[in-house]
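Entry for the shared binder. Reason: the reviewer on the internal report wants the predicted structure included alongside the sequence.
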Amino acid sequence: MTQLVWLRNDLRITDHPAFQQALQRSTPDSPVAAVHIATPAQWKKHNESSAKLSLRAALLQNLQQQLSAHGVKLYLLECNDFSACPPLLAQLCRELNCRNIHWLAESPLDENQRDIHTRAFLSSQDIQCHIQPVDQLVSTAVLNQQEQPYKVFTPFYKRWLQMLQQQDLTPLKTFPEVSHSETPAFPLAHWAGTYRDDLWPADAASIHRRLMHFCQQKLADYGNKRDIPSEPATSQISPYLALGAIGPRELLSAMRNSAWGADYWSESDWLRELAWRDFYRQLLIQFPAINKHKPFKADTDQICWQQNDAHWQAWCTGRTGFPIIDAAMRQLLQTGWMHNRLRMLTASFLTKLLFQDWRKGEAFFMQHLVDGDFASNNGGWQWSASVGCDAAPYFRIFNPLRQSEKFDPEGLFIRRFLPELASLDDKAIHNPGCEQRQMCGYPEAIIDYSSARQYAIEVFKQL
């Protein structure tokens, strides 16, 4: 009887609890198999980007080769949405004479409901479901002394770090080491589009090399350089983490085994970012309304956001007249990725200065990001709009000019993505004069920063 592993956003064979459990239960008469179900209509509803879907397809192709080398077959099924998954899985289980299916739990509400319905349906078919915790560094609930979830990140992080240090931090050894054999090509699914495979190679070896390079060469300076968008100072691991092509324990292990991290890993700003990932996932579980396009701060749902299509289109296309904002948006459009500080800047600009609904920006990011992750994206947008859990104070409104001068002082990032401004000097490039804008074919600023800032502050004050 086959031990079946259902893969979703955990497209890997290393550090994988469900695979580990399936292998422990397997025998020569009970081999391990894996399945992935494509749900294109559901993905479209969730605003999954073409870039992310394409990376998913490429990762599946590589995963099939890895699994084949271990004698494990990967089945690729397809249905429209989550509701069709239970009978499809039941049919595969019958074909494989399978009575045990294994998977990792997921945090978002739709995925959680899918799993509840699937478990109930398969149980009625006499198929046992073995569900492992959510794919996080600390998978159990992080609660305060009153057994309530944290609503502020800093105390959450302190408790999270204590819990992390009390558990086994070693990545799971899933499959024994074997040499890979040649396998037939795994055809890319028709639901895949295109993505920058030159930026995001989909083979496990490249992903591992990228992680090792970051931990050995960049981790020590990460805290000092991570906010400089022209510097290649970040890990560039997020697309793989979003699809589970690498596990969080593997990231932590690489950090702890690096020369700098061996002594200072628990003080790393990068570890703090991984804690934010866990924090946002816990919020989805503890506060289900967040999953339904509702702000964490209920009173902010009364805000009357502005409807200005010209402003919206200018933001979407990188034509706002604020160079750092436009460069960031063009980075997103050209690469499917945006530097984290710039995500905060562009989100603050849309919600606080253009005063447009944060949910529009949240959806736009998901529709374009190769590393789109619902929990982190939603949490980041609510933070920037001052409507979320532990959000930025409503009066904190990033000044695009000051941020540009501080984090891109020589205009290196702006020049890369706004080549029309490349000839300007280091001062003018942050805020070109009227004649310079005309000469470069660059638009005037669509808003006055000071008046837009004051308007936002007044609206939030009235709440």
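Summary line for the report: Confidence is low (pLDDT under 50) at residues 179-184.
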